[in-house]
Automatic annotation (TrEMBL):
It comes from Bombyx mandarina (Wild silk moth). Residues 238-301 form the Ionotropic glutamate receptor L-glutamate and glycine-binding domain. GO terms for cellular component: plasma membrane. This is Glutamate receptor ionotropic, delta-2. It is a multi-pass membrane protein. Keywords: Cell membrane, Glycoprotein, Ion channel, Ion transport, Ligand-gated ion channel, Membrane, Receptor, Signal, Transmembrane, Transmembrane helix, Transport. Its main location: membrane. Belongs to the glutamate-gated ion channel (TC 1.A.10.1) family. It comes from the Eukaryota. GO terms for molecular function: ligand-gated monoatomic ion channel activity. The keyword ATP-binding does not apply. The keyword Cell membrane applies. Residues 1-19 form the signal peptide.
Length: 687
């Protein structure tokens, strides 16, 4: 632990033999050391200082001697970084860079930058901001230098706002009692810098004390004094919803509600605007010249303070801008085409599954055989009784002819299954009991069959849908989504399914064109589930509105709807992505905004606003099942197919009977068309 503490206290100290004679009057009176001690002790009373990083050169190194550390009340690690006067801090050497990174990793929330060369300090701040080596939201104590306030550096003072500039004023030589004093100033945040940087005075330090005794690092973001903040937005449901009515646009959505709440709590006025050519560039991408277009371009170039547009919490966005803590998590998946399964031709078979049909046929054959066996047994008993009572030879038991032959027995058993009553009640209590119980079986079976068929005819036809990434990869559909980053997401996937998707992934920047391709059954579009639902509803109601407004195109629109596939949102999520609000890089507004967004999420406002944003879309959804539950001719194809099979078999039997009559019966030597009864008597005798 001792060596670790020593590493924090001194990481990169370049040996200095003797302090430079420059500003030796400050060294003699220790004024700079005293003002730093007072500032640190004053800040310690109002703020939680966890670590202090000191960046100085050889000129100011001797300020931090042993007496300095004895005077301060802070008991925190100090990271000392001493740089050479000639070192270019826009590209620091390895030791300096590692020391800066160590200070950032240790959580240093205060930086003391004492560099005699103002250009060197400016280049250090530019490097630290660009590569996030310095914590721009920390507290800074910097020597006042007009070169820090050049117009090219104004963007830094929109990010580094907790800063104190120390401007030394020498004592007046002609006045005996005059002493050196320091002017403490800061950036005029939240007021924008207009052309010339004019620092705002915080306090004066003279004679070992502060004149106004104000808080040196007051919070500047809790009250922005009704300042105007530029907010760039992109219309993307449900984050931002733009409703155009009577040539006026009303902007709503979850993120708009969040911004309105933040503006009330932090006292600022949001000025909403869209980037140039937003329909073409949308979120924006890196251009060949290195700049960015679209929404990201507005943020990277510093023209906007906040960004709204369903920004995903990804490393790509975090590299370019700052993101708030996620306020929600969205399911990102694919919009795929549906395929109807035309099984209307087998409507008669659909009420029962295969094994049920096998059971029905087996019961039919077994019961018919039992009826035949019982009928034969009853005929045998009747013959014995007839012999005992000497009845006439031609008397037969009533009703046994129904089951006297195996074919007739099967047919009448099948007739009872169709709820067709028997023409005669058969003789014999065994057959009568079996008939009664078989009737109960037939009633239960037929009622089940009718109920199942009613449900099949009433419900819409089953659809073939793609609901998993495996099914999508196995299909022949081309996949697509917005931007090259979406494609890179699948290309960087570690599983084979993601790689298969990336191989046929196309960049599609227009969701309307993508929806047309999906409806044609050749494409799958990637976006968040709420936006995909919005695309489906807008497409459905767009056709309806077009039909109403353009009566001449009614036929063509209806034909187009009939030929296109229905759109289906894949039920499985490819990934659940956190969604955040964007800030410009190293924005000072992020810490307090994160606190308010956390409270907004905890009280359930985000969920309520999400339901409000999706309410109109849900109300415009058409209930396709109610429309498709109507009976139509297509659903009765099975009945006509059964009738056609009956016609076909009947015609085949008729042709067979005619062929047998002409080829067999007529050619028999015993055939006599004038005495057919004799012919059939001879045939029966032979049998």
């Amino acid at each position: 632990m001792k060596w670790k503490l020593a590493l924090r206290i001194l990481i990169a100290i370049i040996a200095v033999s003797k302090a430079s004679p420059i500003l030796e009057d400050i060294y003699e009176q220790k004024d700079l050391e005293f003002v730093l001690v007072d500032l640190l002790n004053h800040a310690e009373r109002y703020h939680d200082i966890t670590c202090v990083a000191v960046i100085c050169d050889a000129i100011y190194f001797n300020v931090f001697d042993g007496a300095f550390f004895k005077r301060i009340d802070l008991i925190v690690p100090f990271v000392m970084i001493v740089v050479e006067e000639y070192e270019d801090l826009l590209s620091p050497n390895f030791d300096t860079l590692e020391a800066l990174r160590e200070a950032r990793r240790d959580g240093c929330n205060m930086y003391i930058i004492l560099l005699a060369n103002g250009l060197q300090a400016a280049r250090l701040l530019k490097f630290g901001d660009r590569h996030r080596v310095l914590d721009t939201r920390a507290k800074y104590i910097i020597l006042h230098d007009y070169r820090l306030f050049h117009s090219d550096l104004h963007y830094l003072w929109k990010r580094i706002v907790n800063v104190i500039f120390l401007k030394h004023h020498r004592k007046i030589g002609s006045v005996a009692k005059s002493r050196a004093w320091f002017d403490l100033s800061t950036v005029p945040f939240p007021n924008p810098i207009k052309g010339v940087f004019v620092p705002r005075r915080v306090d004066l330090w003279k004679s070992g004390k502060f004149h106004y005794n104000t808080v040196p690092f007051a919070d500047k973001t809790s009250n922005l004094n009704d300042e105007v903040l530029h907010v760039v937005y992109l219309d993307h449901v449900p984050s931002v919803v733009v409703v155009n009515s009577n040539e006026t646009g009303q902007i709503g959505g979850v993120e708009i509600e969040i911004i309105n709440t933040l503006s009330e709590k932090m006292n600022f006025r949001p000025k909403l605007y869209q980037p140039m050519n937003v329909e073409l560039h949308k979120w924006g991408q890196k251009q060949p010249n290195g700049s960015f277009s679209g929404l990201l371009g507005e943020m990277v170039n510093g023209r906007a303070d906040l960004a709204l547009g369903n920004l995903q919490y990804t490393p790509y966005h975090l590299e370019l801008i700052d993101l708030s803590i996620p306020y929600t998590s969205q399911c990102w998946t694919f919009l795929t085409p549906e395929a109807l399964t035309d099984n209307s031709w087998k409507t008669l078979l659909l009420p029962f599954k295969l094994y049920m049909w096998i059971a029905v046929v087996l019961v039919l054959l077994i019961t018919g055989t039992i009826f035949y066996g019982l009928a034969r047994y009853q005929t045998y008993l009747h013959g014995l009784k007839r012999q005992e009572e000497n009845e006439k030879a031609d008397s037969k038991p009533v009703g046994l002819y129904l089951f006297g032959e195996i074919i007739n027995s099967i047919l009448y058993t099948y007739g009872m299954l169709l709820v067709v009553s028997l023409p005669k009640l058969p003789t014999g209590w065994s057959i009568r009991f079996l008939t009664g119980w078989y009737w109960l079986y037939c009633i239960l079976l037929v009622v089940s069959y009718r109920a199942s068929m009613t449900a099949i005819l009433a419900n819409p036809a089953p659809r073939v849908t793609i609901d998993t990434l495996v099914e999508l990869a196995a299909s022949k559909l081309t996949c697509g989504g917005w931007g090259i980053e979406t494609k890179n997401f699948f290309q960087d996937s570690l599983d084979d399914i993601g790689q298969k998707i990336s191989d046929r992934f196309e960049i599609s920047n227009d969701p309307n064109i993508a929806a047309d391709k999906v409806a044609q059954g050749t494409f799958a579009y990637y976006d968040n589930k709420n936006f995909l639902k919005y695309i489906i509803v807008r497409r459905q109601n767009g056709f309806i509105m077009e039909t109403i407004d353009n009566t001449t195109n009614l036929t063509s629109i209806s034909t187009k709807n009939n030929n296109e596939r229905n759109l289906h949102i894949m039920s499985d999520c490819v990934v659940n992505i956190p969604i955040s609000i964007g800030f410009h890089k190293n924005s000072p507004l992020k810490p307090l905004t994160d606190i308010y967004i956390t409270r907004i999420v905890e009280v359930g406002l985000v969920e309520k606003w999400l339901n409000d944003a999706m309410y109109t879309i849900k109300t415009l959804e058409t209930n396709e099942e109610e429309i498709k539950a109507l009976m139509n001719l297509k659903k009765l194809y099975g009945a006509f197919i059964a009738l056609a099979i009956g016609y076909f078999l009947s015609v085949m039997c008729l042709i067979g009977e005619l062929a047998h009559w002409n080829c067999v019966v007529k050619k028999d030597p015993n055939y006599d068309k004038y005495a057919l009864h004799k012919y059939y008597e001879k045939i029966n005798k032979k049998q």
